[in-house]
């Protein structure tokens, strides 16, 4: 199956790539993975073709991608396994166009018992907490970034968050903007928790 995505995240995961975007026809999230276990992608798997050559995919690009199958996990229901076919860039959107793709969750996976930067995995395993999507694109007005510690502090719907940043461009963070768009991702299980991650800062 072929889908055209607006790429909103190409973050670092185990020295590989976690690439995700929104289907242009439905605006639903798709997380590109290498297998049914949600394996992150190698450099070569995240390259696209355009008339000028092959390049690593970047946020805000419109990308045509071929998928083999859907492979949802309890904590990441948007996973799709990619084929070996090289991706094709169709176009690119501008920053002001991001608004039409925003999500509007009431909170960022607050489970009522854990710190705000994590979710107790057992709650997901036991269906006590339903993860209907593991990616959110949100807008914030009070972002503070610690480049050395690779952490982002912000508030969303009256709740404060301090999350790890996996955006590879964090060292180029520009603090002059009045507002920022963030891709927040729910990561894989680690020591009984799924941690919340800032995958992209736009």
TrEMBL record:
This is Dual OB-containing domain-containing protein. InterPro entries: DuOB_dom. Residues 3-201 form the Dual OB-containing domain. The lineage of its organism: Bacteria, Pseudomonadati, Pseudomonadota, Gammaproteobacteria, sulfur-oxidizing symbionts. It comes from the Bacteria.
């Amino acid at each position: 199956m072929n889908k055209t995505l607006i790429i909103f995240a190409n973050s670092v995961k185990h020295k590989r790539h976690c690439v995700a975007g929104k289907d242009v026809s439905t605006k639903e999230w798709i997380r590109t993975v290498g297998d049914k276990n949600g394996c992150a992608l190698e450099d070569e798997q995240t390259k696209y073709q355009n008339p000028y050559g092959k390049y690593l995919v970047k946020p805000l690009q419109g990308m045509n991608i071929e998928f083999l199958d859907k492979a949802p996990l309890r904590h990441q229901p948007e996973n799709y396994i990619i084929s070996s076919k090289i991706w094709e860039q169709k176009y690119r959107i501008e920053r002001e166009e991001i608004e039409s793709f925003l999500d509007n969750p009431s909170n960022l996976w607050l489970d009522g018992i854990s710190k705000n930067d994590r979710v107790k995995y057992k709650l997901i395993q036991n269906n006590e907490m339903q993860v209907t999507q593991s990616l959110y694109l949100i807008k914030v007005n009070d972002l503070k970034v610690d480049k050395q510690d690779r952490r982002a502090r912000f508030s969303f719907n009256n709740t404060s968050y301090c999350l790890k940043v996996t955006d590879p461009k964090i060292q180029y963070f520009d603090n002059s903007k009045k507002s920022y768009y963030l891709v927040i991702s729910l990561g894989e299980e680690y020591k009984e928790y799924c941690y919340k991650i800032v995958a992209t800062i736009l």
